[in-house]
Specification:
Elements: E1 12-16, H1 23-29, E2 32-33, E3 37-39, E4 55-57, E5 61-65, E6 78-82, E7 91-95, E8 98-99, E9 107-116, E10 121-129, E11 135-144, E12 151-160, E13 165-174, E14 189-196, E15 200-207, E16 213-224, E17 227-228, E18 235-238, E19 242-251, E20 257-267, H2 274-288, H3 290-308, E21 310-313, H4 316-332, H5 359-371, H6 374-385, H7 388-399, H8 422-425, H9 431-446, H10 451-470, E22 472-474, E23 479-481, H11 499-522, H12 524-534, H13 538-549, E24 555-556, E25 561-562, H14 586-589, H15 592-597, H16 606-612, H17 619-630, H18 640-650, H19 654-665, H20 682-696, E26 700-702, E27 705-708, E28 718-725, E29 728-735, E30 739-744, E31 749-753, E32 756-760, E33 764-766
Parallel strand pairs: 27-31
Antiparallel strand pairs: 1-9, 2-3, 3-4, 5-6, 7-8, 7-13, 9-10, 10-11, 11-12, 12-20, 13-19, 14-15, 15-16, 16-17, 16-20, 18-19, 21-28, 22-23, 24-25, 26-27, 28-29, 29-30, 30-33, 31-32
């Protein structure tokens, strides 16, 4: 743990006291979003010290030209990046002719931030003494509407404490923004049009290259003691990409002056005319009014929490951690639009480009399947189906593959590969397996097989063709091998026979072949359509099966474990416990050469295979592999602790499971990896949910039935969660004496608890 300033609270993230050193970290932690757009917790007023400005719009990206020192054939030409969108929150403020800036105030008192996760709003309050001697109290509330998801609302209150004050508000919208991580320091936005009204303004701009058109808008209302004083701007300043209004007011000591600002974005993805769309959004928001918009926000979040909440009794930090994770997941992706996906940083920062990784299929889909309608998870699968042609093109153009072999990109916005590190782009091919596994997992959990004949089988065939061509036959081993890869453990590059990669390659081929047979039997029209479309023959499938049936897996007979890759035991096997803590994290302290030669593992690799395919291995095999590899794992990937927590719980290593749970749930709140100022780890947050539901709850789906093996950490008094399993809502509540299962509705649900069948109805108690 590297920071400890967030106050423990069951439902809120709270910071008390102003510290300029924490500003960028807090901008990440207090971020807000609504699935359509998001906003770092930047100050509305001017701030002259270090800050990381960030507003983001779902689906809007820019192909930033790749920047490398030495070009290799096959490099993607660009790295797609979520754009820092035009600024709609800005409000410059002058008080008695002095600019309000917390960096220049002579004193800042009672500074407090709160992200209220239960109700979906962000609040900031403080008292400040300006250089001119004026003392003020400020309270700012901001939220992004879930119902009216193109609109955000700010209510900014100022109360002079020691004298009357002339307050000048200067709200603005500004498209002249840049990205923190731009490769070439280019501007990404081309201004098109500025429109000004009485209290509303619009800036329309489009992205260079991708030509997404966005209208950024604002509407301002000035109030005194809660009453609209119908003030019009005294001046209006504008450039080609910015509009700023000036409102002058005088407020007596002890009275409160307020500006309410409605702002946001309309985009060409959803509107033929973005300006007309923006005018309609303002009209709707103004008609509802601030109080109704806020109440609607509270109601909308109550509905989300009704299904997705996890309660923990007796451990406030653990409770705060899981709710923070669930809150951020729901802020990032709503499931409404199959054109969208889940970026590793969501709406909290720009690292990783805001693109789609294998995280979605490996970690996020279980959360959305269990806490939403199954259509949400199906939309995530459809996202990949819609990009199948691009995956085939990627394998053909960059790797020389043929015959419809598909390599899905490691990083993408639109289906094209846009990751610019060779050892990841071309070698971390295991991501293909996660996409196939997600199709299997969706069918296993929802029972909805229709996706496979409609769309999924084409994806599985493309992936099977890839693995067939990527493997090569070793005369020495008399088996098929896969050379030159990077596994989930990215601290190993260009290795041979990564166990996880080889295992999931075999599984993908076997699964694809099984589904071809099933579709032929049960959906003959779809089978005929698909095989004709992809030109697949029985002979080709037999060639696939040769590779799967004779796949090589490195093992150590002496240790009774699978080897992460050929030669792993040749390393200097010093366990993590004997590594000097001053050397951590090694990715920030060591040269890359030293990292690659070390035995240290960034994240679960062999154990990722054991997580996906738990039923393929015995409990004793899991124990041996877990105990060996955990001792070398530094968990410098956010995706690692959750897998280890789940497996530790399965092995009854409850102290370890709890420690890993805390690490995954509070990874950002406590800034374990010393990087939270760059944004939060959104996709791994789904792993936190899995740590409780699959880890402590022991939930599995086997033979179309839910299985549970509930356990509870000694630090907790109890915990509970809900899941939507095949359109039945099941609540599970666990304490040290009993587990109860409650079904929402009159239809019974047969479940398996600790190996025994139980009929769950409105209330079932297991002692």
């Amino acid at each position: 743990m590297n920071q400890d300033y967030i106050k423990p609270d069951n439902w809120s993230i709270i910071e008390e006291g102003f510290d300029a050193e924490r500003v960028k970290s807090s901008e990440s932690l207090f971020s807000i979003g609504n699935g359509a757009m998001g906003q770092r917790a930047n100050f509305e007023e001017s701030y002259s010290a270090e800050t990381f400005q960030g507003s983001y719009i779902a689906g809007i990206y820019y192909p930033d030209k790749t920047k490398v020192g030495w070009w290799k054939n096959g490099y993607p030409k660009y790295f797609a990046k979520v754009l820092n969108a035009p600024n709609w929150i800005g409000i410059d403020i002058e008080i008695n002719e002095e600019n309000l800036d917390l960096n220049t105030c002579t004193e800042v008192r009672n500074f407090r931030r709160e992200l209220n996760m239960k109700e979906g709003w962000y609040n900031r309050s403080f008292e400040a003494v300006l250089k001119n001697g004026t003392e003020i109290a400020v309270n700012v509330r901001r939220f992004l509407s879930l119902d009216l998801d193109e609109a955000g609302i700010i209510k900014y209150d100022i109360t002079p404490l020691n004298k009357d004050a002339k307050i000048v508000y200067k709200p603005y919208i500004d498209a002249g923004v840049t990205n923190e991580d731009a490769n070439w320091e280019e501007k990404f936005w081309e201004p098109l049009e500025v429109k000004k009204g009485t209290n509303e303004a619009f800036v329309t701009a489009q992205t260079f290259k991708t030509h997404f058109k966005v209208t950024t808008f604002m509407h301002n209302t000035i109030l005194a003691n809660g009453e609209n004083i119908n003030v019009s701007p005294s001046t209006i300043d504008s450039t080609v990409d910015k509009v700023q209004y000036t409102y002058g007011t005088i407020i007596a000591k002890g009275q409160t002056s307020t500006i309410q600002k409605i702002g946001g974005y309309t985009v060409s993805l959803n509107h033929e005319n973005t300006l007309t769309g923006a005018e309609k959004v303002i009209k709707s928001a103004v008609a509802l009014g601030y109080e109704t918009l806020l109440q609607n926000q509270i109601d909308a979040w109550a509905k989300i929490w009704e299904m997705s909440d996890i309660t923990i009794e007796g451990d406030v930090k653990a409770q705060q951690g899981i709710r923070f994770n669930i809150f951020q997941l729901n802020q990032t992706y709503s499931g409404k639009d199959s054109r969208l996906n889940i970026g590793p940083k969501g709406f909290t920062g720009e690292k990783y480009g805001g693109s789609t990784y294998w995280d979605t299929e490996a970690y996020c889909i279980p959360f959305y399947m269990a806490t939403k309608d199954q259509q949400v998870a199906r939309n995530l699968l459809t996202y990949r189906y819609n990009q199948l042609d691009k995956a085939i093109e990627n394998a053909k153009d960059n790797l020389g593959f043929k015959n419809g072999a598909a390599l899905y990109p490691m990083v993408t916005m639109n289906g094209e590969e846009c990751h610019n590190e060779w050892e990841i782009t071309h070698e971390e091919i295991h991501r293909n397996g996660a996409i196939a596994f997600a199709i299997y997992n969706y069918n296993r959990y929802t029972g909805d097989y229709s996706y496979i004949p409609e769309k999924g089988l084409e994806v599985l065939i493309g992936i099977a063709r890839f693995w067939h061509q990527r493997a090569s036959f070793s005369k020495d081993k008399n088996q098929y091998v896969i050379l030159g890869v990077t596994g989930p453990n990215e601290y190993e590059n260009n290795i041979n026979n990564n166990f996880y990669t080889n295992y999931i390659a075999k599984w993908c081929i076997d699964f694809a072949a099984e589904q071809i047979e099933k579709v032929a039997s049960e959906y003959p029209a779809d089978h005929k359509r698909i095989l004709e479309k992809v030109n697949l023959s029985v002979e080709e499938i037999k060639e696939w099966k040769k590779v799967a049936d004779d796949m090589y897996f490195p093992i150590s007979e002496e240790l009774g474990i699978y080897l992460q890759q050929d030669g792993f035991l040749d390393k200097d096997l010093v366990p993590v416990k004997d590594l000097d803590k001053s050397q951590r994290p090694i990715n920030q302290k060591w040269s890359w050469d030293r990292v690659l030669r070390s035995p240290y593992i960034k994240q679960a690799d062999v154990l990722q295979g054991f997580y996906f395919f738990e039923d393929h291995f015995s409990k004793e095999e899991l124990k041996r592999n877990f105990e060996f590899y955990e001792s070398f794992t530094v968990h410098e990937s956010s995706l690692s602790p959750c897998v280890h927590s789940i497996q530790a719980a399965a092995l009854d290593k409850m102290d370890m499971a709890y420690t890993f749970y805390l690490r995954t749930s509070r990874l950002d709140l406590d800034d374990y990896n010393k990087e939270v100022e760059e944004g939060c780890h959104i996709t791994s947050m789904a792993g936190t949910w899995m740590s409780i539901v699959e880890g402590f709850g022991g939930m599995r789906v086997k033979n179309d039935q839910l299985h549970f093996s509930p356990k509870i950490p000694k630090e907790w008094n109890g915990y509970s969660f809900k899941i939507n399993f095949r359109n039945q809502i099941l609540k599970v509540a666990v304490n040290h004496n009993e587990t109860t299962f409650t079904v929402d509705g009159d239809q019974d649900l047969t479940i398996i608890v600790n190996g025994n069948p139980v009929i769950a109805s409105k209330f079932v108690q297991i002692n």
